[in-house]
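REVIEWER CHECKLIST
Item 1: Sequence provided? yes
Item 2: Single chain? yes
Item 3: Sequence as submitted:
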Amino acid sequence: MRAEDAVAPESVPDNSRVSEAGAGWECRTRGSFQELMPERVSGFSWRHPVVLWRSRNDVIAKLFGDPSNGIRRRCVAALAERGTRAGFTMHRRDESFSFLLLGDTGEGDRSQYAVVPPALQVGADTDFMVIASDVIYPSGEAADYPEKFFRPYKDYPGPIYAVPGNHDWYDGLRGFLRVFCDLDMECEPDPWRGPLGAVARLLWRRPGPVDEKALAAARERYRGAPGQRAVQPGPYWMIDTPALRIVGIDTGITGGLDRDQGAWLREVSAGPKPKLLITGKPLYVDDSLRPGRIEGGGTVDAIVKDPAHNYVAAIGGDIHNYQRYPVRVGDRTVQYLVSGGGGAFMHATHTIPRVRVTGEADFRCYPLRGDSLSRYSKLYGRVLRLPKLFELTPQEATEVIRYRLGIEPGRGYGGEDPSPSSGGEGMPAGPKTAAPSLPARSAEGVPSRRARFVAALLGVPRGERRRPGMARLPVRKVPQRFRSEMADWDRPPFFKSFLRVDVTGAELRIRCYAATGCGDQELRPPCEDEVTVPLR
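Item 4: Structure as written out by the authors:
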């Protein structure tokens, strides 16, 4: 039974655009994912100094230069010498097929396991799964794969492929290559030049050991069925089908491609067949373009936008939420998606400004900005022990988002019903957007002073009326390795998400499903967004 047949049309579950209950704020039953977890889960917290220290290669790569290109070239050369598939290509003969896509999965804790039941419910009949970025946190070690990869997805019946993220590269990609490509090779980075090169070499984190017996035992115990076994040709690859070419690229630590991978990408992108790009770094995110540089010249986005290549969509992980930007390119539209909600901490969406790239009406995100602001306000209130000051209800947070950004939010209150089909997170606010029944506002339609203060501190942009010099807490500007410690929680709603992608000879259909951690939403996961792209 396919996902669209699982729920009768008249009983489609509410999503976050319909109600607070649909967003997971009113959990009535305990999530079954808790029974899937091991009895003892190793403590994983971004507050722990050891976790941050194991992730230090991110800082070194940005300060002294990213060595991923050189390491990748040597590893790919070893794969080619071994006899990997020509062109790093996997072939499928079926014109119609489906797959799941999960981004940034591998924390190994409750937030990762919360995604498993709804993903299995929606994707039990899919042909394969793709993990887009950061299979293993914090540093991609092979030793973490048994509990953070093999065990969580033991019940998924199909093969799993992946493109690496920056955290997978903190182990020099050794764990990733061993598990997905069946290659155990420790590739040293190229020597850093300059007077500080010695400092970089001293601080650079070397790959951890590979316990072959432990990996083999985990694979056999959890994912040992013939249909679950797969070896992909490299860290970047292509799945060629009669209707669609799926291209997965490896963006290293800082988002770039080496010249060899760039040449390969241009080669497999040629021709009129429709194409879907899967990448460890999104190209459009937070209302900005991050084109993805290619060593020697050019960008990934230029390849995607070239009409001769016929890309219809590009999906990237790394940012831990869902966003979609339908970008007009000449006489066609390319769907740019962020899908990094597969299990790690949540990146805020309330810090996304009113969208200019596509226009706010065409933009989609999950969680909605108001839900994101409410979740962060509760988190800061608990951590700082100031709940009465910080905590905003979803209703209060939604109204202050409306006020500060000048948009119509995705979920209405007080008789308002912003149709999901008529706008994205919100339409630009017009003269009749005030909702007089909201308690967070004064009679003039202005949110309470406390709500405005909290929104400003937590990084909600000001839209056209932004005032300079307003203090903010570290939500958007501080690097991920620091703000992540304030953005991780283990209680529903988790606001995780995953994609189901269906391909026929005529169209590509992409649906974003929510994983809140609530038991009543595991069997009927809310669909938060859907787009259908013609392929002919």
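Item 5: Key structural point noted by reviewer: The first strand starts at residue 89 and ends at 91.
Item 6: Recommendation: ____
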